Each structure stands twice: as structure tokens, then as C-alpha cells.
Amino acid sequence: MRFNVMILLLGTSCICLALAQVSYDDCCLKYAKKMSGNAQKHAVKYRRQEPDGGCNIPAVVFTMRKGRVLCADPREKWVAALMTAIDKKEAKDYGNKHQRRHLRPRFHRG
């Protein structure tokens, strides 16, 4: 009986510890001070990191074309400008893709 209780407590403890662990894989721990204009052209998307759970600082995480990520301070002007540029490009790409889908092919009758 004692052995069963010990196994149950040990198993419960392991489960609790596993659930309580925080993953730091996707958290920014520091900011890039700047990004060159040429590098900014390669940013394709971004996400916001809020300081909750395991992430200690607010950040904007930019993803580049080849998958590289760069963490930036959301209070910087260049960060806000780059986010706006990415949003505009996504809206333009969505509009072009949506418009192309509804165009009918035109045939020339001769």
C-alpha cells in the first residue's frame, strides 16, 4: 500500500513539474539595436512578444526570408515603420491574390 502511494505521489509530482516548465525557445532576451535598410527588405513577417510567462521583455520578432529571426524593441521608430511596411505589403499581396482569383480569362475572337 505504501509503495502504491509513493508511486502515485512521484508520478503526480513529475507531471506537475513537466507542466510547470516554461519554454524559452521562442523568447527574445535582448534587442538588436538596428537593422540595415538592405536587411529590412528581407523581413517577411513579424510577431509581438509580450512580457508574460517565461518571456521577460516586450519585443517585436521579425522573421527574414530564410527563416532567421531578429528581436527588436517595439518602442523604436524603425521597428514601427518596418511593421507598417510589412502590413502594407501583406495587404497588397492579399489584394492581388484575391483579385486574380476572380478574373475571368479573356479570349480574343478573330
TrEMBL record:
Residues 24-86 form the Chemokine interleukin-8-like domain. Residues 1-20 form the signal peptide. This is Chemokine (C-C motif) ligand 25a. SUPFAM superfamilies: Interleukin 8-like chemokines. The gene is ccl25a. Coiled coil: none annotated. GO terms for molecular function: chemokine activity. It comes from the Eukaryota. Pfam families: IL8 (PF00048). GO terms for biological process: immune response; lymphoid lineage cell migration into thymus; thymocyte migration; thymus development. Keywords: Cytokine, Signal. SMART domains: SCY. One of its GO terms (cellular component) is extracellular space. InterPro entries: Chemokine_b/g/d (IPR039809), Chemokine_IL8-like_dom (IPR001811), Interleukin_8-like_sf (IPR036048).
